[in-house]
Amino acid sequence: MHSSPLLLEEPIRMASILEPSKPTFFPAMTKIVGTLGPKSRSVDIISHCLDAGMSVARFDFSWGDPEYHQETLENLRVAIKSTKKLCAVMLDTVGPELQIENKTDHPITLEADTLVVLTPDQNKEASSNLLPLNFTGLSKAVKKGDTIFIGKYLFTGSETASVWLEVSEVEGEDVTCLVKNTATLSGSLFTVHVSQIHIDLPTLADKDKEVISTWGVQNNIDFLSLYTRHVEDIRHAREFLSKLGDLKQTHIYAKIENIEGMKHFDEILREADGIILARGNLGIELPPEKVFLFQKAAIYKCNMVGKPVVVTRVVDSMTDNLRPTRAEATDVANAVLDGSDAILLGAETLRGQYPVETISIVGKICAEAEKVHNQDLYFKKAVKYVGEPMSHLESIASSAVHFWVALLMLFGLFL
């Protein structure tokens, strides 16, 4: 039986698998992006996150005000200084996200086989019978039988924090839906996802522009995470950043999370500085059996053109548990073997009970996968894909990388 071409050619010894993992002198090459929030914003916790392997801090502006995020960022700076660890800053924009505001702040329970109305009238109060939406075009975009998902987290079909609706009637601007599973929606804001429809809202909302031009400029952000459907989204964002002066060097990472982004992936990849595969929404947008195909194809394309690719939603269960599931651990490793450059943690570090442990475990899995990743094969595939002789500078860079990889492997033998 032949081993996967992704793995090193020599067989993996069972004895080495049974040996306990040893702390390595060098951290995993795969970067870890941690989202900072209520459970991970103190100087102490951030310091531990940095020591555990976090190298990018993500600030999600779909919740919280700039003052709150500024306090967190100041704590990050203190932690960076004390730990002497480098950490970049990523600003994540809201974009054209459909949302339901629950002004009462009381949990809303939706019972299976009952009806609920989605209305654009935001003056009405959210209840188990009626949910006000921040979008007036829903009734024109959906038809009877379409599916709508509401909740904060990845929908699995068995959880009680997200709800699956089926459109039963469209009347005027209101959409009446049949509730397919009993769920309780808690908090003040619920995210709405409608599969495979165009949301006629701007990619950079006014709120996004204000945050970027104030908080973003003030803190000289390194990365902008942008919900992207078309290549024009990247161009408009880059033009906006260039006008701000201080953010000309900010890298724009395209978040691909729906069918539109997938259809225009190649041209988006050419324009973006990097790609984020937002698997939470992709898992709803696509049939489950298709998600891995897009992930592998997208990562391969990013690798071949030399642009970073980030994979999200890998260890969701660690939001409430100290260990990932077997499937999640394997998922992280396979993302690395596919060629992912970074793993992005969301709820696991934002509001999860074990942010430090999550970063540590994900880092260990990445390091183990990197040990058996066939770097030489990937290099040859990349050179073949480019299909032309290297420039002088590329040749020097390639030789330098080969030298350091060989040196690190040799050094690792004596640790």
UniProtKB/TrEMBL annotation:
One Gene Ontology term of the molecular function aspect: pyruvate kinase activity
Domain Pyruvate kinase barrel: residue ranges: 30-359
Cited InterPro entries: Pyr_Knase, Pyrv/PenolPyrv_kinase-like_dom, Pyrv_kinase-like_dom_sf, Pyrv_Knase-like_insert_dom_sf, Pyrv_Knase_brl, Pyrv_Knase_C_sf, Pyrv_Knase_insert_dom_sf
Needed cofactors: K(+)
Chemical reaction(s) catalysed: pyruvate + ATP = phosphoenolpyruvate + ADP + H(+)
Leader sequence segment: none
SUPFAM superfamilies in the record: Phosphoenolpyruvate/pyruvate domain (SSF51621), PK beta-barrel domain-like (SSF50800)
Highest taxon in the source lineage: Eukaryota
Entry's family note: Belongs to the pyruvate kinase family.
Protein name: Pyruvate kinase
Species this protein is from: Glycine max
